[in-house]
Write a structure and sequence with these properties.
Blueprint lengths: L9 H11 L22 H12 L11 H17 L7 E5 L2 H19 L7 E5 L4 H10 L2 E5 L10 H7 L4 E7 L11 H11 L2 E5 L7 H6 L16 E5 L11 E5 L2 H4 L4 E3 L7 E3 L9 H38 L3 E3 L7 E6 L4 H10 L5 E3 L8 E5 L8 H16 L5 H11 L8 H10 L13 H9 L2 H15 L3
Parallel strand pairs: 2-3, 2-4, 4-5, 5-6
Antiparallel strand pairs: 1-7, 6-7, 8-9, 10-11, 11-13, 12-13
The protein binds pyridoxal-5'-phosphate.
């Protein structure tokens, strides 16, 4: 697009934007199981209003905007109490789970410089079920990631494998509460005990669930303790823009005490301009997300969250049980929260996904990785609750159709080829060609039916998929 010579009218601008949106995911229908966390409550509108009204205030300098200092302290205060953090527990408001995790790792790295000076090449041990954000953060920060297996039936961290993977260079170990992919809570007390014995840090990734899990417990959920009451837990990430239903750009990272959080804070006074001191990654930072998060937490309140959790728990149970009754499907692990992953031994899951897409549902593909078979992920929210029966009916039908559809020959061929080939020998051109053969076009276009692309990606080694995805995105954005 070229910058218009003359500014356009407000009406023209909003009309064009509405048209642009027409192809977007229709999350308002309640038929999307991912990406948007809709409380189905007027709290969402309050969040949007407050977001807009604080959008321009700048958290770069909280002394200039004391309202933002107060809002951050109050949001963190509510988050800390939610997970049994005592008066010593402190935290920082961030833009999302990834930023919270980057900061937790940065803090661990700096902490280790002071407390483990012999460690020259720091390592982090995470289970294969830990979120990709840990790999990304470690990559950004020069920390080595050591990945361990999960328990085959429960999809929880295998604590013995984690113990065996720890070395004198390990500075941090991680558990999820719950894991995103399978929605199970890891044995945090055992993981944290390992950290304590070794004298290292233990991060609990509560990005998706830490805010709402306490309500699942109050409603009778049985899963391991995961919060600051557990000895050895030193930090926790908790997204507010997921199941606390705040608008996007809202997460907190919490620490056991201020001495540990001190390692997170960065200052620079050696250039010619204003002195910089940032607790988090961003410097200029809109007040919108934190004011909006504050507003949503206050608008829903404890009772509002309990009601939402009840609806989610009921819907998740209905889905998991219903899926278990459909011939050929099986739920992976036992969901502790509001996420369900299921696989099929009789139909290709990527065909099932295409059939569900045709029936106006959004469900998420998860590839065959580290012993977790290719599967379908659902993140269940309150607005999905009225749709459980309709979803199960369409799913049953989709499985039947999928059984009749062929397995991709291209994917089968590639799988065989990659068994004998070093991924490093595959050129970028070959990768682009393979993606093209599967229907992924230039400029980020994907076919309506994606089973072929997904089967190929699922069959490829992760290192190759990573390259293919980077190539794809590099073509997708070119102004
Ligand atoms: C979503 C998620 C993250 C990453 O958070 P973003 O807000 O997408 O950056 C990390 N861990 C878990 C368990 C998550 O669900």
């Amino acid at each position: 697009m070229e910058l218009p010579k003359q500014g356009k009218s407000r009406a023209a601008i909003t009309a064009t934007l509405e048209e642009y949106r027409s192809g977007d995911l229709k999350w308002k229908t309640g038929r999307a199981f991912g990406y948007v966390y809709d409380p189905g409550h007027q709290a969402m509108d309050i969040g949007k209003e407050v977001y807009a009204s604080f959008l321009t205030e700048n958290a770069l300098d909280p002394t200039a905007f004391p309202s933002l200092q107060r809002l951050e302290n109050e949001v963190v205060g509510m988050a800390r109490r939610q997970v049994n953090g005592d008066e010593d527990v402190v935290g920082t408001f961030t833009s999302g789970g990834t930023e919270s995790i980057i900061l937790a790792l940065k803090t661990a790295r700096e902490w280790a410089k002071q407390h483990k000076p012999d460690v020259k090449a720091p390592e982090m041990v995470v289970c294969a079920t830990a979120h990709a954000a840990f790999h990304k953060a470690a990559y950004y920060l020069g920390i080595k990631t050591v990945m361990t297996p999960f328990e085959k039936d429960t999809y929880r961290v295998d604590v013995n494998a984690m113990r065996a993977a720890m070395t004198p260079n390990t500075i941090l170990i991680v558990g999820s509460a719950p894991s995103y992919a399978h929605g199970v809570v890891d044995p945090i007390p055992e993981i944290a005990a390992l950290a304590q014995q070794a004298g290292i840090l233990c991060h609990v990734d509560g990005c998706v669930g830490a805010w709402l899990l306490p309500y699942f417990r109050r409603l009778g959920g049985t899963f391991p303790e995961f919060d600051f009451k557990v000895p050895g837990v030193t930090s926790m990430s908790m997204d507010l823009h997921k199941y606390a239903f705040a608008p996007k750009g809202a997460s907190v990272v919490l620490y056991k005490n201020a001495a540990l959080r001190r390692h997170q804070i960065y200052a620079c006074s050696s250039w010619v301009g204003y002195s910089v001191v940032n607790a988090a990654v961003q410097s200029s930072k809109s007040g919108g997300p934190m004011a909006a998060a504050w507003a949503v937490l206050n608008a829903l309140g404890d009772e509002g969250y309990l009601d939402i959790a009840r609806a989610m728990k009921e819907a998740t149970r209905g889905l998991a049980e219903g899926i278990g009754r459909i011939p050929g499907l099986r739920v992976l692990g036992r969901p502790d929260f509001s996420m369900v992953a299921f696989a099929s031994d009789t139909a290709n899951v990527f065909h099932i996904i295409d059939e569900m897409t045709t029936r106006s549902w959004y469900v998420q593909p998860q590839f065959n990785r580290s012993g977790s078979p290719a599967n379908i992920h659902l993140s269940v929210g309150p607005t999905n609750a009225p749709w459980v029966e309709a979803f199960l009916k369409d799913l049953r039908e989709s499985v039947e159709v999928a059984k009749t559809l062929p397995v991709s020959e291209l994917a089968t061929g590639m799988e065989a080829m990659f068994k004998t080939m070093d991924p490093a020998d595959v050129s970028d051109e070959t990768i682009t060609q393979m993606m093209g053969m599967a229907g992924a076009g230039e400029g980020g276009a994907l076919p309506q039916r994606r089973a072929e692309v997904n089967q190929i990606l699922s069959a490829m080694p992760p290192a190759l998929v990573e390259r293919a995805l980077c190539e794809f995105v590099n073509k997708m954005f070119r102004g």
